[in-house]
Structures are given as C-alpha cells and as structure tokens.
Amino acid sequence: MLQKFIYQEKGLFLQSLHPVASLTLIAAFFLLSLSFSHPYYLLGLLLVILLSLWAAGGLAAWEGYLKAVLWLILLIVLINALVNRSGSTILWNGPELPLFGRLPVTMEAISYGATMGVRLLNMVSAFCLFNLIVHPDRFFSLFSTVARKSVLVVTLATRLFPLLLATLERIREAQQLRGVDFSQGTLRERVMKNAAIFNTLLLSALEDSLQMAEAMQARAFGSGSRSRYRRDIFRPRDAICLAGIGLSLLVSVYSLARGMGTYTYFPELGSLQGSKISLIALAVVLLGLSVPALLNWGCKYWPYLKWKI
Amino acid sequence: MSLFTVENLTYYYPDAAVPSLHSVDLAIEEGEFLLLAGGSGSGKSSLARALTGLIPDFYGGKIGGKVSYQNRDLRSWSRRDLAREVGMVFQDPEKQLVMTGVESEVAFGLENLGLPQAEMFRRVAEVMSFLGLTALKSEFTATLSGGQKQKLALGSVLAMQPYTLILDEPTSQLNPAVAEEFFNLIKRLNEEMNLTIILVEQRLDRCFHLADRVIIMADGTIVQAGPPGETAVWLIKNGLSFVPPVAALFAHAGSTEIPLTVKEGRRLLKRILSCEKCPKEGKEPPELAQQHRPSNDNLLARDPALKANGNAIMAPGPALAQIQEETEHKNQGLVKTNKIISPHHTVVISCTENQTKKPVIEVKNLFFSYLNGRETLRGINLLVNSGEFLAILGENAAGKTTLLKQLVGLLKPSRGRVTVMGRDTRRAAAHELARHIGYLPQNPNDCLFQDTVEEELHFTLTNLNLPDEGRVDRLLGRLGLSHHRHSNPRDLSSGERQRVALAAVLVAAPQLLLLDEPTRSIDYGTKADLGSLLQEITREGSAVVTVTHDVEFAAEYVGRVVMLFDGRIAFDGPKHAALGNSMFYSPQISRLFRGIDSSVLTLREALDRLLSKLSSCS
C-alpha cells in the first residue's frame, strides 16, 4: 500500500537525471516557495510542481499527501482567520470570548492564511516529488564525501526502520496470542504491557545490530580510508535542466529585488493586477522550472530527443 | 602447503566457562570444498569465524593455539588484506545487507577497501552480471525475496574477489528450491573459479554430495573428517543424524555402497530390485559409487542394535524411537490413513474418522484481501479434527502465513467463515482465542523477553488465569529444559530457545497448536526431537497445524498435507498421496522410489521395502 509513496524505478527521464540536477530542482521549489509571498507566484509554483509530479507519474501518490495536508491547511486558515487581527476588511465580527475579547474575522487574515496554506502545500508536494525521482542511495552518495559517518548512520536507519516496524508487529502478535489484551487494564497496566513489547524489540534489535556489525567488519568496514562509489553520469539533459533552473532562480532574485514576488496583505490587500514586466518575470520563472517536466514529456513522445540528450 | 592450518586451537567466548573450540587441528587445501557439520553449539560456527579472524578480532574472549593462512599467522594479517582473501556470507541475509539499494550494496565492501572508482565499477558490473542481479540494480534491498537477498549478500562478498569463501548456514532462511539453486552456485564457484569453500550447514541432504571432505564437530572438537561417503557410514555407525536420507537408507540396509544423491541411489536401488547380485554380495560396484565405498562391509551385521531399530537414524535416541514404534502399533487405525494411496479410499477413511473426532478448525469458503486489494486467499475450505497433524506447504506468497493468521484470529475473513474451537473468529479477539490455541512464531525471539525460562512459562499462565499445579515442572522436564529453568532464554542456543518458546505456548495445554516454519535454522537432531514431540501432542488429542517449506519434515512426521497455490488449496489429503506422487514437493526417499513404489515416503517404509526385497532375493 505504501509502495506508491516511495521511490520506484520506472525508467523515467526525471529519474535518470544526475542527482545534482534533480536535487537543485527540488531545492529551487523549496526555496522559492519560502521566498515568494505573492499568490500568483505561489500558485504558479504549485502548478509547475504538479506538472512535474504528473510527468513522474506521481499524482496518485500526491493525492495521499494532499489528504494528509489538507486538514493542516484548513487549520492554518482557521487559526489565522480567528487570531490575526491585522486586517481591516471585517467580514464577520466574531463571538465575544472571555480573555480574548471579540475575534473579528477579516478578509486579509483569510487570504494570508490561504496563501500560507498554498506555501505549505508547495513544500509538501516538492517533498513528494523528491521521493519519486531521487533514489535514496544516490542522494546519500552525493553527501557521503562531506559527512561520511552521518550519511552511513542515516542509510542504516532508513534501511532498518521498516525492519524494526515489522519486528514490532510480530512481537505484538506473539503476545496477543499468549493472551495479552492490549486494550484492557488501567493506564499503568497498559503502559506495562506495551513496555514489554519494546523491551523485546530492544533485546532483538541489540542482537541483530551485533550481527550487522560483524557482517560489516567481515567486509572490511573500518579497515582504513574508504573510497566512494559513483555511478551517476552528467549528460546534456542535466546541463539543460540546470540552465533552466538557474535562469529561473536569477529572474526570481530580480523579481524579489524589484518587489514583484511579494504581496501586501495587511492592513489591506494589495492590488493583484501586476505590471507587464512582473508577468513576464513570472512566466520566465515558471518556464525555467518546467524544463525538466517538459523534457520528460518530450522524451516520452520523441525518442530522437531522448537519444540526443 | 595447506591454505589454512589450524593448530591446537582452543577458544573461550568472553565470560564463558566452557571452551567453544577445544584443541582443534585442521588443514585446508586450496580449492577444497569443505562441509562443516554438527549439532547446534558444536563449535562449527566458531571454527568458521576463527578462520576469518572474526574470532577473536570481533568477539574478544580467550584464544590459544594458532590459525595460519598461507603459512602466515592470521594475527599478522591486516584486516584489509585478509578481507581481500577470505570472504564470509552469514546466515540471515536481512542482517548483513547494509545499504538501501542493490548496486550500492555490492559496492559497499569495495568502498571499504578504498578501491579506485574505475576498479569498483568494473567489479560491480562483473559480479552483477555473473549472478544475474543486473535487472535488480535499482531495486531496494528490502523489496527482494529471501533468495535474491542471499544472492546479493554473496555477490557483495564476491565483488571483493576473495580466494576463500566461508558460508555460515547460508540457506537456513530459504525455501528448498531456492536453497538448491544457491548450493549449485557455490559448487560452480568452487569448480570453475577454484574458490576454496568452507560451508557450515544443517541442511545436509542438498549439499553432502557437493563436498570434497566433511568434518563433523561435537563439543568444540573435530570428531570425524573424511570424504562424504566414509563420513556417512561413520555417522550412522555412531547413531548421529547428520546424514542425507538416501545414504542413511542404504547404510541401514547393509549396503557396502553408500550413494549420496538420488541419481546414484536409484541406480543401486534398481539393481537390488531386479535381484541382481547386490554389492553386499560382493559384486564390484560401478566407478561412481566406488569413491563412497566405506571401509567396513556390512554395517547391520556388525551392529545388531541398528538392525533391530531401523528408525534410530531419524529419531533422537532409541528410547523415543521405541515409543514412536509402539504407538504406531497401538494406533494402527490412525496410521492406516497414511498408508492409503488411492484418493477414493482417503475420503472414506476420513469420513469414518470424522464421526469419532471433534473438528477444531472449520474454514468455509474463506476469501481474504489485504487493504491494498491483493486477494491472498480464495475459496479456502478446510476441516481439521482433534488429533490430526497437518502441514501446509506452498511457495512463498502462496498465502500460507495469511491462512495461519486467519486461524489464530489475527486476521478476519473478508468473506466466508473461520470457526476455531467452535468460535467464529470474526466475533473473537486473538487474545480470547489464545486460551485454546497455541501459536509458535517463526522466530522464537519474538516471544522471549522474561529474565528466566521459568518466568516465560508463568507469564502465559498469568495472562490466561491458569493455575500452575505443577504444569511448569512437568513441561520443563518433558522438553529437557529443567536445568535451564533459571537461565535467561536469550543466553540459550537457537534450538533451546525454540523449545522455551514452545514450552511457553504448551504450558496452557492448547487443544490446537499452530506453528510457523518451526524447522528453520534448527539441526537434524533438534528437528527429530520436535517432530516426535509434536506427534506425541497429537496422540494426546490436540491438533497440530504447521506451515513449512521442509518437505522432509512433513514426510517423516505429519499425517496430512495441504498444498496452497496462489491462495487456493491445490491438494488436501494424506501425506502419501500428496508427497508420494509429487515431483518437486517430494522428500529424497520418495524421489528415490518415484515410479517404483509411490507408497514409500519415510525412511522406515523404504527400509522395510528394501529389506523385504533383499530377503526375497536371497
């Protein structure tokens, strides 16, 4: 069931990118989502991320993320609407609460909350894209030169975590079948029952880790300085994608410096009508970021392109 | 000059009072295929680890004597140089894979050796092509099957291009077909690449004949070393059970020629059945069998005890074998079911039995799908009566474990009905059913967490509100665990741990016992003990259902076999009908008699058949 959320080799163009290119793309999505506050820019980014997700065949996985994050977005809008008092266009005067006083709901606060929601959605969607197009080993190998030991610990943890969960489930089942009812008893008793499971898990995990350490030693781990295995090739496709992303980042800096990517929410909403130049800048930013997704689409229908890049 | 020389090696694990290896002397030649066998705790794994330097490097402890590799003391080798020479594959593939992806896993050892990129890439490519792993290169190690994982573990060691390969029970977690494939690969490495192979193994029926030399260990010393044929004779003579069934059969029948494979065995069997002069009577054996000719000429004639009790080889001791035989006579009506071959007769017999016996499991038209929509069980109908011993066989992902979980109430039917001990599992929680059902998980560690063996048993009694009334004492005595009652279960050997887990289940005197792969990673002797114990339990009136890959175990001990294929029951009936007529799910003995007599399944039956033929010929 969880298969669709994790990396699967589908032979996609997006998966064939050098990790530097694919990580730059994800980083750009994150960075720009945090930097822009203009709804057009944020919605445009969402559109490009969705386009990339569609190209990666990940819309079904994204739905799962969306369901989880939608509640959080609603909560953000709601809290903003009730608590944020900086707006001036009052839609509803709200109830009179002790300690808080009257809580007026303003148009500005709702808009601000909604935009923050889109920003959150952008970042979650970018994370979803990351999971679909970057193989964890390639991601880690990119960083293994700078933080060798930490990377190995993280790799081991990602490998062993599902294993631990499976063991935990088995221990719980074994206990149930020896007559333990986890839903019965006082709080203290239930805590004790669960502690017994974790105790068993800890004992097993310690034994297993010794075996793992032994196997690592048998394969010469810690016998001297290590080298790094690289298997990624840098192709024209990576250069084209990086160029697109680079252009988009440059134009973003320009728009932010000129105040085009930002938007005034308080005390009154600014005008949504942008200048011509701001619309052109937005188009360039989005187009640059769409290069990988567009190339993915192009390679799918035009093999010649795929051969050449 | 030998590759490895072990001189007077004695080793104590840290804090151990008894040595795990005691004055071991051994020489291993280059290119040799050595099989190390022995009961659990005999020191075979310790010896293998001493040859890789993991003992004492990784384990610590006290060591005396000397281990040399290429005439140099192992201690003078740097760890990196030694890792380039000697590679080791461990028992559980799950606990030796370090990386998330397949390709990175193969490269892990090479990175540790500090090799340059070009060299690493070449070796990764070579190994992956050789082992046929290329299609899996971008897979996650977690999604591989057990066989693929173990092949990957082998590949990641082979990439380091060692000259010696040490394998510690590499197939104990694999099913028989996959295990055989793995052994063939090892043999190929030995024959084509001249790799020296040191194989520690319990599953001897599939690898005994592959070895150039078999070493038997007991209590930390080498008690026998020699070619497989000679060792088989020695083992039988000494009442030890580490012999493939085919070899055991002919040795018991008094043949001077000891075949080690079904092919050799059939050749010999056909000669005997056609009343040709048997090798026993002095006819010159063929070239192939000549190499296995033992030094003594007639085992049975020399050892009247063996002659009287042909079953001794599969049973732990004469006493138990005798009990087994006596009860077989007593319950002849029951045993009859096993002797029936025609399916029509089977139905008649089971019907008459049903009238006297109580159904403990009734599964009607069971369908089950997991949340991801995968339909794992389809239209299962199953009736199990008290006193029955049933094995569920089938490939991986055939639905065996899912069916077992349905029977214990951990999973509920999507459609259809499961009634266990008269209770509908949809209306009973697993912990409620636990009062009547015992469940032994595959890994005994999953249920061992108390500080002493005794407490482990009391834990079950307390949960189920049952009085002790001497149950714990009796059960510990019966399972031979009395002297361990105050030990920590985690300090015991794997066979003993399993017995503790079983005791913790049996203490509640369940009327139905369910076991998941109970014979994985236990040795022949422990397996025979377990089989006899389970038979005893069924004779006392409880029903036993076991999921297993172990065809030899099923053939020897159970009464009825259910074969699952793709979530459906492909066969349900007495073991003779199931295994005697099967080509792949058949034990060695049955393969030996295939097309000759499909009613022969166990060693005892084969021996009866052979001895009666021999006497009629003479």
Give a short synopsis of this structure.
The complex is a heterodimer of chains A (309) and B (618). Chain A has 309 residues and is mainly alpha-helical.
How is this structure best described in words?
The complex is a heterodimer of chains A (309) and B (618). By secondary structure, chain A is mainly α. Chain A has one domain. In chain A, the strands form two sheets. In chain A, strands 1-4 form a two-stranded antiparallel sheet. Chain A has a two-stranded antiparallel sheet with strand order 2-3. In chain A, strand 2 and strand 3 form a beta hairpin. In chain A, helix 3 runs parallel beside helix 5. The longest helix of chain A is centred in the middle third of the chain and has 32 residues. The two termini of chain A are 35 Å apart. The mean pLDDT of chain A is 87. Chain B has 618 residues and is of the alpha/beta class. Chain B contains 26 helices and 20 strands. In chain B, the strands form four sheets. Chain B has a six-stranded mixed beta sheet with strand order 6-7-8-3-9-10, sandwiched between helices. In chain B, strands 16-17-18-13-19-20 form a six-stranded mixed beta sheet, with helices on both faces. In chain B, helix 4 runs parallel beside helix 6 and helix 9 runs parallel beside helix 26. The relative contact order of chain B is 0.09. About 12% of the residues of chain B have low confidence. At the A-B interface, helix 6, helix 7 and helix 8 of A face helix 3, helix 4, helix 5, helix 18 and strand 16 of B.
